[in-house]
Each structure stands twice: as C-alpha cells, then as structure tokens.
Amino acid sequence: MTDIGYTEKVMDHFMNPRNVGVIEDPDGYGKVGNPTCGDVMEIFINIADNKITEIKFRTFGCGSAIATSSMITEMAIGKTLEEAMEITRNDVAESLDGLPPKKMHCSNLAADALQEAVKDYWKKQGKVVEDDGDSPEMTCGGGGCDSCVK
Amino acid sequence: MDNSKIYMDRGSATPIDSRVLEFAYPFLKTAGNPSALHRQGLEAKTAIEDARQKVMELINAEKPASIIFTSGATESNNIAIRGTAMRNIGRGKHVMGSAIEHMSVLNPLKDLTKSGFTMDLIPVDSTGIVDMNKLEEMISQETIVLSIMHANNEIGTIQPIKEISKIVHEKGLYLHVDATASAGKVPIDVQDMGIDLLTLSSNDLGGPQGAGALYIKTGTRIQTVMPGGGQERGLRSGSENIFAIAGMGEAARLAKEELPVESERLKEIRDQLIHEILKNEKTFLTGHPENRLPHHASFRFSFIEGESILLMMDFQGVQISTGSACSSKTLEASHVLLATGLTHEQAHGSMVLTLGHENKPEDVKVVADATKKTIDRLRMLSPITQEGEEYPEEEHHH
Fold first, then answer.
1. B177, B133 in Cβ contact below 8 A?
2. Which residues of chain A lie closer than 8 angstroms to B315, CB-CB?
3. Distance from B218 to chain A by nearest Cα, in Å?
4. Does ipTM surpass 0.90 in this model?
C-alpha cells in the first residue's frame, strides 16, 4: 500500500500530531532540514535521570515529515539518551507501518532531529560529542527534495 | 466531517459529462472499424466525421479536415512539435517554447536537442505572461516552431496569443498553441488568433479520457511521428478510439454551446473564492490577477507545504491540487512557479483550485473555511514564521 499512499498510522499522526509545540529553555534542541527542500523539523527535549521526560516538535513539510516527527516523540519519551540515539529512520518508518519509497529519503528526518537534540544536551553538559560529519542542515541541489543531500 | 465532497481539481481529471457518456456509450458496445466498408464500419466513420465537425466548430477551424484525432494532448503536442521540426529540418534546427509549458511540450522540445536541434525557452514575468521582447530576440532564421500554451494549468494565466502570432508570422515560423487548459473555458478562434497548430484534450472538455485532437492549418508542412496504417491523413496511424472520439465531439459541442453562460457562472464563484481566501494572512494569488481562466484560482501560503495542504483539505472533504515538490512524481519544485520568480521555499506552499459544472456558490464558504482551518493548523505546526529569516537567500540556490 505504501507505493500508493500513506498508511492509516501516517494519516493518524498527520491529522492528530502528538506533542506539538515548543519547550521554553529546553535541555536539548535539535533542528534539521531546509525550507528550500521542503522539510524543516525542530525537536525540544527535557531530561531527568538521563531519560527524556518531555518532548515537543514543530515541523514544516509534507504529510510524512509531520507524521514521522509526531511518531518519534512517542517513541522517544521515557527512553534513556543512549536508547534515543539508537532510534533510526527505519525504526520510525516501521512504527508508522511504512512510508512511500520516495519519502524514505527526504521526509524522514525525525531521527536526525532527535539525535541533534540529544547531542545538544550532551554538549551543554560538557560531554565530548563525536562529530560524525553529519551537518544538521541539509544542503539542497535546488531541485526540490530529490536533490537534497544529507 | 461533512460527507458531501467538493471536487475542485478538474485540471487533473475531469468527470465525464453524463450527456456525453449517454451519447457515446453505443460506440463502446458496437465494434466498428471506420476503414471497413460494411455498415458497422460506416457507422464508426460517420461518428468520427461528426466529431470532427463539432471540434472544428469549437475552435472555428477552416474545414473538418484540419482536425486530426489523437490519443490525447500529449500525443497532439508531440506530433505538432516533432512533426513540424522534422519536416522542415532543411530550413533550420531551432525550436522554442515558454518556460511554463506543460511537460508534454517541454520534453518533446528537449528531446529534439538529441537530433541536433537547439532550443530556447522564453521567460515569463511574475504573473506568468511571456516576455515579448525576449520572444522576438530569441527567434532566428533557423527557428521552425514556437509552442506556447493558451492558458497555464497551474497558475491560470492566459497568454496574448494574437500578439504573439503577429510576431511569429512576421518571422515566418509556425505557432503551436496548447489549448488543453483553456478549451471550453474561454473562446478560441484559430483563424482570428492566427494559430497554425492547436492541441485539444477530450477529458479537459468533459469528454472521455483517451482522445485528443490536433488542429493543423491548411498548408502547414508536417510529418508523422508514428508511421503505420495511415489513419487521420497519415499523421496519426492506429485504429481510432471511436467511443472516446465520439464523446470528445459531443463534449466540444456542449462546451461551445454552454461556454458563455457557464464561464460567467464559474467566474463569479471563483472571484468569491479568491476574495475569501485572500483574507488569510501571508496569502498570495499566483498567476495573473485578470488575464486568467474563469474557473481557475491559485494561491501560495507562506510557511506551510502543499502536500500537507492537499491532505488536510481532502480530510475536510475538499479535493484540490498543489504544485508542491513533495507531491510530485519527481519531487521537483514546480517549474511554473519557479519561472514566475518564486523561491523553492515559496513554491512549496501552493494550492490550485479548478472549478466545473458540479461546483455551486454554496461551495465558496465550505472551501474558504477549510482553507482557513488548514492554514491555521499547519502554521501552528510550522517552525518557520518569517520568510527567509534563518536561511539566507544564497543557500537557496546552488
């Protein structure tokens, strides 16, 4: 079904997104994407005892961009930071019963946004965070999502 | 949610008119090859010639033989462009279009460059009207054909065809006009407008899918792009789709008859829609404010994305279209919106409404309310609150 359209779960998270909003002065903040490409996501987290106790997001983008953001907030809450760092793009897509193939690459950045938020928290704690070379902002080839290279 | 759905996406697919279906249905049931001499063959032939007459009348062509039937607008555009370019190759190897043509014009033009042709696309202004100075500049001794759409499907803008025709014919090339989006919505007179080749689509007139037509002015030098059994003056071989062609003819007849009243009616509903929707903040009309198709309204909204707009409108029972990259097959931003000077970011947040017979004045409030709700919800979700604020312009273009 994912070749044709969105799953029921995607539509549910799109129409009723969970944990929308902003945390003032959050413990961690991550932002990925670029409006030129059509997707921008930001995730705010609060931490207690190394666990994510509160999480909020805001997203500009298509149906899957909004649904994956909403989904990951549900997946991450209550998790330790190490566990949160291990959530992959595929995990998010699977939790939504799949995404259309062309959306897997461009509108599935929620895991990246969460990782940025965790890294932001660690940096603030003075922890040395290894740089994996990923830039939190995508660059865009100017041809829409397809040409966005993360 | 309201279970009465409102369809405002006729530009993508038009429901077949029930009168057309009733008229053409017998031809689905009875097989007849117009090339055969027995009675069923003659009936099929008569149906096609009747349709040819009706299409001729819709666009005021000089004679029925100036119309050939095809499988649709894409095929008509291919025959018009490739057929004239290849037939007149001895005169030159240059072809032209506008920057906002449909893919079924842009890609045949581009394809000709593989056969040694050069191609130029004329830029448009922010309202989508072609730049007349550039048009004149770009035409050379080598130019064989210029392809310009009568009206654009995404932004509704109507081109000044008569003016363009004057320039084109002073320079001695052919003018091909793709009238897929405009036929049946605004009057077309190929003789008065000075058109050499004109593309029509059956479905966009309210006829069945699977038929189209190409008007070819008498004396135009053109060759086939698909040799075969020699049907349609040898320009479009293959057994005719009698049902679709008969339906197209009837749709053309109804369109001609009803156009003056129906386009006024739709224009009134459309104007109300524009008035209501533009009340939203950071909301802009795309295309030309006056020179636009009477049934067409197109917008862009800052800070939100078109596929999300489409899904949320659909959820509220309103079916619309968007030029957003994220809802397209290629995930590429609309070349039409970019050509009018919008940034990629701005082109993402577009919505296109195309109205038809089934739309009523009561639809305005429902659609305007759904639009407002959609914009408010998506903006509440959006981290972007100011255009280009956090992302300097130079990052937008590589």
1. no
2. 15
3. 42
4. no
